[in-house]
Amino acid sequence: MEEIALYALHVEDDPSLNPWTFRMWFLGLGLSCFSSVLATIYNFKPQGISLSATFLCVVSYVLALMMQFIIPKSGFIGRWLNPHSFNHKEHAAILIMSSTAARSAMAAEVIAVQRLWYTKTPNAAVCIFLIFSSQILGYGVAGLLRKVLVYPTKFFYPVNLPIMSLLETLHRKEANNKPQLKIFYWAFCIIFVWEVIPEYMMPILTAVNVFCLAKRNSMVFTNIFGGGNGNEGLGILSLCLDFQYIGSSALYLPLKTQVNTLIGYILNLAVFLGVFYGNIWRARDFPFLSQLLFSPTSNSTKYVVFNQTAVLDSNGHLDEAKLAVEGVPYMAATFASYVLTQNMAITATITHLVLYNWDDLKGAWSFMAWDNLKSLAKPSAWMFWKKTEDIEEELRDMDPHYKLMRHYKECPNWWYGIVLLISSAVGLVCIYEAHSGMSWWAFIVANILASIMILFTGAQFGLTGFSLPVQPIIQMIGAYLEPGNPLTNMYFTLFGYNSTNQALLLLQDLKLGQYAKLSPRCTFTMQMIGTLVGAILNYVLTISITSAQREILLSIEGTHIWSGAGLQSFNTQAVTWGGLAKYMYSRGSVYQWVPLGLVLGFAAPLPIYLLHRFYPKAGFNYLNVSIIAWHVGWLVTGINSPCMTTFVVAFWSQFYLRKYKSEWFLKYNYILCAGLDGGTQVVVFILSFVFFGASGKPIPFPTYWGNNGGNIDYCMVDPANG
What we know:
Layout: H1 3-7, H2 22-42, H3 53-70, H4 75-81, H5 88-101, H6 106-117, H7 124-144, H8 146-149, H9 160-171, H10 178-194, H11 196-201, H12 210-214, H13 219-225, H14 243-246, H15 249-252, H16 255-277, E1 293-294, H17 320-326, E2 330-331, H18 333-356, H19 358-361, H20 370-375, H21 379-382, H22 391-396, H23 400-404, H24 413-433, H25 440-464, H26 471-481, H27 486-516, H28 520-548, H29 550-554, H30 565-584, H31 593-603, H32 605-614, H33 625-631, H34 643-660, H35 662-690
Antiparallel strand pairs: 1-2
Helix pairs in contact: 2-3, 2-5, 2-28, 3-5, 3-9, 3-35, 5-27, 5-28, 6-7, 6-27, 6-28, 6-30, 7-24, 7-25, 7-27, 7-28, 9-35, 10-35, 16-33, 16-34, 18-31, 18-33, 25-27, 26-27, 26-30, 27-28, 27-30, 34-35
């Protein structure tokens, strides 16, 4: 697959292009503020929207052209503020800075939860430093691993291909780029107009299912075929015509990833239906799909949500006497199986990459080899000005994109080392000042876990485009290291999981900078500034909203404008793992098999690997047990109707077009993806503020057969939820 990055993207560079312009700083900082504010606000909204890189790319391009036109091109002002035409390096720098700020920090969620459910809250300085340190800690580790996870061609980060295709198309002046621009504009405009219909006027187009239409009084049909509403059903054989839910990943993820996803999806259907209708873990007494905890008094005719505050004392610690009265809660059986398969996926990732990609990974730790450690004692190792390495040998197998980056000054490793050191020191101070209850040694363990996960999940992400969430294993380890304290578990998760997630985003942006031929020091600067701007505004908005909307955020329903559902879910998971792990997951408990998924995951790839060794030409090496295992729990939440349509689009793009229309695929596939993604993001953003109540009172579309106000696919609504 890595050849796509060589043929779909131009391997050329003009070192004279300057990204350090007033236009870049003005738009970069402005869009960073804009995207950070919106990302934080959306954490507290009933409907979630994330600003995609394509959206920011389109907006920044339009604004930059306006500045280029308005600001004089001559004289003192023109020389400093409008020195040349807007170029793709300015554009890439703006995009990296603003997209970095658009990632709402998990630390802001921790602060919000602490303000809403706990008595002790940190001060402003601690909060800001906590957000910033937790956001950049993973950057330090990822930066030190960039030689292994970014520079090689094989780590091509598929998610970057559409945005790079768009950048190249917008800025290349050759006549043969006009057809690509035409594809982009047509795709953008058509999807912009179309999305108004399924999003607002006719929501039934999100989930058209003939089985639901034929039988509307059966919960069995709802569980199997329903999928137009969150937590409704598995959406089998549904047709989805809403591109927001189909997603652009169908067009850019490699065929290997799509096939493994399909296998996991098929297994997911079998596992969820088998667990529920087999009544495993009292499955029939609780909803088919749900992320909440339920009281053991629940039954199939009435679900009782578990009151987590009733088992905690005033300091947020578990009170075992109160738990004995309330009883140990249950999860929906499908959610329990989802956590189990996620655990399998995490450890299967390690085994899979060790078996198939060991030569790529071992370089990450080569500096610890005894010969390398001995060489550090030699004076010549420190005399970098006398370095006499064989450049020709180094260049022989180098990625052509990276080879062009040698024109620019590299970021020294000590820059990333300093980032790691400072963020760790600041984070350590913050966990004590924030009254997290987390020990210094647990903080170190969280950072070590994050470093290990960054290597393996980073390799998986770069090779396949699949980003594996490692939150379950981090929460589980934190729960057993420091049990009985949900708040401590949240902080352990913050530095163990969020650092991993942030590192993957840095690796992705470093590869984007390599494709765009943006100097490494410029990419580094954009990352740091975007993160700092995001940290400050994340805090300001979090404090403002949690103060002004406290009662609404604590309520179950929320309103059409504000909702605390995301925070409640995060807090519930912390209570489950941090407070109740001994009672829910230990040996002899109801969900004892859930943590054992970690052990199963280590062994799961071995049979496939052995088959590959015995039958090397049979294609068993294309099977990735990690991706398959994660997707065995894929349908645990959200709207599930798009799955079949997504697979149709994916195989049309990655199989049919790539195999039978290869020239068209290389020239137009990723620009088509960018146009569809950009048009969808823009219209959803506008609809959210104009009609969906993001800025005030919503304006609903009139109710009729295409907008029925209930389950939009006409499947039966579960009466036990009432």
